[in-house]
């Protein structure tokens, strides 16, 4: 059995001040994928940079204070890769991949975008380059007898069941028709991957993983499901449990996202 958790920490140092360290000390996960770390390793104290019981790997963004992804693994990886071979994004702190025995696991922070702006154009360029990489990674892994798991903040809600107010968000980044169509390609024949949580919860609204800090979004569960476990089908079929670690109260949150955890059988 392997347990994998993904969470956008919305600034690791800020999350640490609010309780991330206690959560990490108590998790039973074998792998933790972090996004939006925002800090370089040298800016973190030892407890965050080298947490006890973990091998920690970092891919900070060249732009200071932005993005940044990390992987925490109980066992030492056989190989690490930063970026996916697209020069524009290789130092953007958005993709970190590791090979563990029989498994390639990655932490992804896909650009959030903003409809009608250069930020959305950047997101579209990322998606255009990333899908062929995903397809190739799946094929290479199959040749090597490996499974693939891409965890992270994909910044797209795929279907109306993945966000509370879907009708009002059809022209907003994160639920644009072209973004949703791209994710359908990831989950279709072209990409060949499976949305692990949706496969286990096919008829559920959510479970949401992000709630705005504005208003009473968390208290009213007005959320979005944008944090995914995206796996090769055989690995997805071995998932026995997948859930969102939603805080009990608004005050107990240490990020605007909640950890998404999945347990994979042998």
Automatic annotation (TrEMBL):
<dbReference type="GO" id="GO:0008311">
    <property type="term" value="F:double-stranded DNA 3'-5' DNA exonuclease activity"/>
</dbReference>
<protein>
    <submittedName>
        <fullName>Exodeoxyribonuclease-3</fullName>
    </submittedName>
</protein>
<feature type="binding site">
    <location>
        <position position="153"/>
    </location>
    <ligand>
        <name>Mg(2+)</name>
    </ligand>
</feature>
<keyword id="KW-0464">Manganese</keyword>
<dbReference type="InterPro" id="IPR037493">
    <property type="entry name" value="ExoIII-like"/>
</dbReference>
<comment type="similarity">
    <text>Belongs to the DNA repair enzymes AP/ExoA family.</text>
</comment>
<feature type="site" description="Important for catalytic activity">
    <location>
        <position position="227"/>
    </location>
</feature>
<feature type="binding site">
    <location>
        <position position="257"/>
    </location>
    <ligand>
        <name>Mg(2+)</name>
    </ligand>
</feature>
<feature type="binding site">
    <location>
        <position position="8"/>
    </location>
    <ligand>
        <name>Mg(2+)</name>
    </ligand>
</feature>
<feature type="binding site">
    <location>
        <position position="256"/>
    </location>
    <ligand>
        <name>Mg(2+)</name>
    </ligand>
</feature>
<feature type="active site">
    <location>
        <position position="109"/>
    </location>
</feature>
<keyword id="KW-0479">Metal-binding</keyword>
<dbReference type="Pfam" id="PF03372">
    <property type="entry name" value="Exo_endo_phos"/>
</dbReference>
<keyword id="KW-0378">Hydrolase</keyword>
<feature type="site" description="Transition state stabilizer">
    <location>
        <position position="155"/>
    </location>
</feature>
<dbReference type="InterPro" id="IPR036691">
    <property type="entry name" value="Endo/exonu/phosph_ase_sf"/>
</dbReference>
<dbReference type="InterPro" id="IPR005135">
    <property type="entry name" value="Endo/exonuclease/phosphatase"/>
</dbReference>
<feature type="site" description="Interaction with DNA substrate">
    <location>
        <position position="257"/>
    </location>
</feature>
<dbReference type="GO" id="GO:0046872">
    <property type="term" value="F:metal ion binding"/>
</dbReference>
<feature type="domain" description="Endonuclease/exonuclease/phosphatase">
    <location>
        <begin position="6"/>
        <end position="257"/>
    </location>
</feature>
<dbReference type="InterPro" id="IPR004808">
    <property type="entry name" value="AP_endonuc_1"/>
</dbReference>
<feature type="active site" description="Proton acceptor">
    <location>
        <position position="257"/>
    </location>
</feature>
<feature type="binding site">
    <location>
        <position position="36"/>
    </location>
    <ligand>
        <name>Mg(2+)</name>
    </ligand>
</feature>
<keyword id="KW-0460">Magnesium</keyword>
<feature type="binding site">
    <location>
        <position position="155"/>
    </location>
    <ligand>
        <name>Mg(2+)</name>
    </ligand>
</feature>
<feature type="active site" description="Proton donor/acceptor">
    <location>
        <position position="153"/>
    </location>
</feature>
<dbReference type="GO" id="GO:0006281">
    <property type="term" value="P:DNA repair"/>
</dbReference>
